[in-house]
Amino acid sequence: MIHLENLCRHFEVGNQIVRALDEVDLEINKKEYVSIMGVSGSGKSTLLNILGLLDTPTSGSYVLSGVSTSTMNDDEMAHIRSTKIGFIFQSFHL
């Protein structure tokens, strides 16, 4: 259902590159429950934003239900977000 291979997400901050995600491999099968855990700044939110199609990776592949997300346009991603993906947003101060 979810397959990540060599997934990277890098950000430019000034003249530095921040590697929020670097060569992440992950497979989550249908009906499987997972927990994403890590210390502050480890890339959890970045990973969830990519999994939820709110952000795109710098490189690597993300296949969702057998379809590469790199081939999806904005309308296709919006449709998947509205029909197949749920989010609960929590602010750090709550």
From TrEMBL:
<protein>
    <recommendedName>
        <fullName>ABC transporter domain-containing protein</fullName>
    </recommendedName>
</protein>
<feature type="domain" description="ABC transporter">
    <location>
        <begin position="21"/>
        <end position="93"/>
    </location>
</feature>
<dbReference type="InterPro" id="IPR027417">
    <property type="entry name" value="P-loop_NTPase"/>
</dbReference>
<dbReference type="GO" id="GO:0016887">
    <property type="term" value="F:ATP hydrolysis activity"/>
</dbReference>
<dbReference type="GO" id="GO:0005524">
    <property type="term" value="F:ATP binding"/>
</dbReference>
<dbReference type="InterPro" id="IPR003439">
    <property type="entry name" value="ABC_transporter-like_ATP-bd"/>
</dbReference>
<dbReference type="Pfam" id="PF00005">
    <property type="entry name" value="ABC_tran"/>
</dbReference>
